[in-house]
Amino acid sequence: MSFYDYKQQYKNIDFEKFAKTVCAEQIKTILNKDEISEFDFLALLSPAALDFIEPMAQKAADIALKHFGKAIVLFAPLYASNFCINNCAYCGFSTRNDIERKILNLDEVEENAKIVSGFGIRHILLLTGESAVKTSMDYLKSCVKILKRYFDAVDIEIYPLTEDGYKELGEAGVEGLTVFQETYNEDLYKILHTKGAKANYRFRLETCERAGRAGYRNLNIGALLGLDDFSRELFFTGIHAKFLQKNFPSSDIGVSFPRIRKAEGGYQPRTVIADSNLVQAIAAIRLFVHRIGITISTRENNDLRRNLIGLGITKMSAASNTQVGGYAKKGNTKGQFEISDSASVKEVKDMIYQKNYQPVLKDWMQMNGR
């Protein structure tokens, strides 16, 4: 059974009606449980749970400490191309946007890799727009070969591939995959994605399963928060994470919580996700899936990221640039979205140290000292 099939048993939930039934006593009972059910998890995403943010956050931090200690992995994204065949209403790289398009040649990939590795970063996330023509399998494998010279771990965030495609990139050195479903609402998904391969909802939804069967060590998912109802999106993100953890026990499953940021095209989110909701989401998913990686990127500002550290964050981006080849500061392409935290790697490390956590720059190895 794929996650698409598994998800069907929850498709008739009336999320708004359910939220109205949740009361304070129910939340207290849930917080006293060692393990919570799917509908306990949904209750923790309701407005009633906002009055219990502090105990939720404390319990989430305790669980994270037990499973992950105080280590936070630092990584950086490297955008190799912004060519895209998809028409995604909210994305700066959408084919409908009249922006300068660029693909890095291999010398430029290496130039940017040298710069990022010079920051001390040893985990890189290779990103492209979704165009299998402009960023072919041969091109991607060549990029990975270069990146492996400079980084201990290479993950990808590219267009969804077949299982054989993931195996091919895995043999080249890729260890992990990030793919955002954007929205789990299939009807809304069709409205937001009207052109290109990304219009295939099910193929995208089952992407991590193909990578998992290909042996990828890290599988990271998320919904783009602001596209649809908060509780609906986080509920399906949570059960998706748990499904992947159950079916791919050899892989580390992670979740990101990207909120929509300003991008070319001027898309306005349907719902505004407050900081309190972000905290609620992170705590709730930790209580539901204990051994889950949680990533907070530079979409969020420095002050908020600082305050989220104690909640059990396990991975953070640092010194990010969302322009194609932006680390070398050549060209003038638009970034995929505007970042909110421009702190350097050293500044992010210092911030983590100040919270009594440990930044991890090398794979599975904590840095000693500053």
- State the assembly state of the protein chains: single chain
CATH class: Alpha Beta
Q: In sequence order, what are the helices and strands, one letter per element?
A: HHHHHEHEHEHEHHHEHEHEHEHE
So what's the overall shape?
Answer: globular
Task: Calculate the mean pLDDT score and round it.
Answer: 92
Our estimate of the beta-strand percent is 5-15%
Widest β-sheet, arrangement of strands: 1-2-3-4-5-6-7-8
What is the compact description of this entry?
Helix 8 (163-172) packs across helix 11 and helix 12 runs parallel beside helix 13 (275-288). Residues 364-370 have low confidence and may be disordered. 39% of the residues lie in helices and 12% in strands.
Provide an overview of this structure.
Helices cover 39% and strands 12% of the residues. Strand 1 (71-81), helix 6 (106-118) and strand 2 (123-128) form a beta-alpha-beta unit. It has a single domain, classed as TIM Barrel (Alpha-Beta Barrel), CATH 3.20.20. The chain has an 8-stranded parallel beta barrel, surrounded by 4 helices. It has helices spanning 3-7, 15-21, 24-31, 38-44, 53-68, 106-118, 137-147, 163-172, 186-192, 201-205, 207-213, 230-247, 275-288, 302-308, 345-354, and strands at 71-81, 123-128, 153-157, 176-178, 218-221, 252-256, 293-296, 315-317, 358-360. Mean pLDDT is 92; it is low at 364-370.
